Amino acid sequence: MTDHQASFEPIKDMSERLRDWHKVAGRHDLPWQHQGPYATWVSEIMLQQTQVSVVIPYYLRFMEAFPTIKTLAAAPQDRVLAHWAGLGYYARARHLHHAAKQVMAEFGGTIPQTLDALVSLKGIGRSTAGAIQSLGWKRHGVIQDGNVRRVLARLHAIEGDLLSTRVQSALWRLAETYTPTDGDDAAVHTQAIMDLGALLCTRHAPKCAACPLQRDCQALKDGRTHLLPTPKKTIAKPTIEWFVLGLRNSEGALWCSRRPERGIWGGLYCPPTGASLHTLLTECGLSVDIEWNEGPTLSHAFSHFSVYLRYVDILVADFELSGPGAWITPEAYDIGLPAPIKRLVGWD
Ligand code: SF4
């Protein structure tokens, strides 16, 4: 950090410019805006690692199915996961569901307003709590999502890994300094700085000429907007091959079992899937010589590796199978199947 990071003389002026810009150029029609703390919470969890345009249809379907915290808490987990299927990072959905139950049991069904109480809920960190406070409850609350981090890092020419403890604490200090204490102003500021990061201060080619903070921006003054935030070291992702055993009965149902909560597609239903076709067949009690047809293939990227999925189509009689599992039909919408599997079996 450099000296100018500690001087905040023009903060009020900057805040006002940011809010003026937001009034005319910010996002005002996102479906979760001005809908209260539950809507803010659901949207913030969905938006972790996922873009707004992807989230919107999932959010709308989710809120139609679980319009209140009470309906979410009372829903079976399978149904919650079914509405999350395709968004990925399923621990988010399981934690949201768990936290909804916590709110019912510990807070009388009302989402709490204080930072301490909010972060006691499963899956809610400091930034999500700040968003619920400011955007949901219209009270002072500070956020630091990816967009905000990028804006602040450029504004103050902060170098280094944005998620390191040193940089994180510097960014939190700045975020707290910039966030107005008044609740309504904090709500506008929070939305404005998120929108600035999403619309102007983008990762590549930021639109500095239109930015209300250009005269304050150290990265722009230094001609280093393309170098900040410090790019993450890229690590090549390995690709592995998985077979997906498409065991179908005479009625077209697919043999699936629930995946363990921890790990890939945690808690979703899935056909037997793994690296060894021999092992998958044996685990289902089938002969390794059984007749099978090579089905479609699909590549799918997870955060740390990519997988090449090979669908193996086998028609079996119900009595032939052993091991845990159930026959699932495409009509079983309350059962969440991973999105790539749905595509592979033609059920999407
Ligand atoms: S001037 Fe450019 S780099 Fe600086 S905050 Fe604005 S958009 Fe981001």
Folded structure, characterized:
- This protein is an alpha+beta fold and 348 residues long.
- The protein folds into two domains: 219 residues, Hypothetical protein, domain 2 (Endonuclease III, domain 1, Orthogonal Bundle), CATH 1.10.340.30; 107 residues, Nucleoside Triphosphate Pyrophosphohydrolase.
- Helices cover 42% and strands 12% of the residues.
- It has 14 helices and seven strands.
- The strands form two sheets. It has a four-stranded mixed sheet with strand order 4-1-6-5, with helices on both faces.
- Strand 5 and strand 6 form a beta hairpin.
- Helix 2 packs across helix 3, helix 2 packs antiparallel against helix 8 and helix 8 crosses helix 11.
- The radius of gyration is 24 Å and the shape is elongated.
- The N and C termini lie far apart (49 Å).
- The structure holds iron/sulfur cluster.
Task: Describe the SSE topology.
Elements: H1 11-25, H2 37-47, H3 52-65, H4 69-74, H5 77-84, H6 91-106, H7 115-119, H8 126-136, H9 146-155, H10 165-178, H11 183-200, H12 218-221, E1 239-248, E2 254-258, E3 269-270, E4 273-274, H13 277-283, E5 293-301, E6 306-315, E7 326-328, H14 339-345
Parallel strand pairs: 1-6
Antiparallel strand pairs: 1-4, 2-3, 2-7, 5-6
Helix pairs in contact: 1-11, 2-3, 2-8, 8-11, 9-11
Iron/sulfur cluster is lined by residues 151, 154-155, 200-201, 206, 208, 211, 213-214, 217, 219-220, 225.
Can you give me a brief rundown of this structure?
By secondary structure, the chain is of the alpha+beta class. The chain folds into two domains: 3-221, Hypothetical protein, domain 2 (Endonuclease III, domain 1); 239-345, Nucleoside Triphosphate Pyrophosphohydrolase. It has 14 helices and seven strands.
